[in-house]
Amino acid sequence: KPEYALARPFSEGLAAVAVGVGKFGTQLDLRGSGRWVFIDKTGKIVVDPPGTKLSFADEFHEGEVRVRFHFNGHMRTSMLDTKGVNRGILGKPVGRFSEGLLAFPGPRGYGYIDHAGKFVIPDAYPDAGEFVEGLAPVAILLDLNDPARTTTWTHAAKFSLGLRNAPENTWGLK
């Protein structure tokens, strides 16, 4: 008989599993005592932050994991380390740490923060993705009335090229 209703793959020796899960009709339900915890490869719960009921948990990357929890009536997103310590990075990160950086929203858009939570690439993009082999996809907005515009390609599967002041039904750039 399975011990966990939901489980994520092992990553960096740990896996997120849902415990105390009930049912709401035909759907699994984390309300009540349901929560996410992390187990090691022996099945022992090794990360279960005290006083925090995780309503979502991702996989570990570079020693940190993205989680969601309720705080003062609001859903919060944060990062935990492998000991369950909240890294204090609150907001809505995009994806996971990759090559030491995490796409993260700032006052002006998305940029990239390091493990200390400091922006190392300014928050200048409408959207951003994970780094792979030194490159990361970012979205840009082009103004067709700006003669100095440049064409920048984005990762088409996830991002689109936004056009300001574009005629209706415009596809691509001339």
Architecture overview:
This protein has strands at 6-7, 15-19, 22-24, 27-29, 35-39, 45-47, 54-57, 64-71, 74-81, 94-98, 101-105, 110-113, 119-125, 127-128, 138-139, 141-143, 162-164. The protein has 174 residues and is mainly beta. The protein has a four-stranded antiparallel sheet, with no helix packed on it. The radius of gyration is 20 Å and the shape is globular.
Tally of helical runs: 0
Which structural class do you get from the secondary structure elements?
mainly beta
Strand order of the largest sheet: 1-2-5-6
How does the major sheet shape up?
4 strands, antiparallel
Order of helices and strands: EEEEEEEEEEEEEEEEE
Number of strands: 17
Proportion of residues in helical segments: under 10%
What is the overall pLDDT average?
75
What's the alpha carbon Rg, rounded to whole Å? 20 Å
Shape: globular
State the end-to-end CA separation: 61 Å
pLDDT < 50 stretches = 150-174
Strand content: 35-45%
Give me some keywords for this one.
174 residues; mainly beta; 4-stranded antiparallel β-sheet; 0% helix
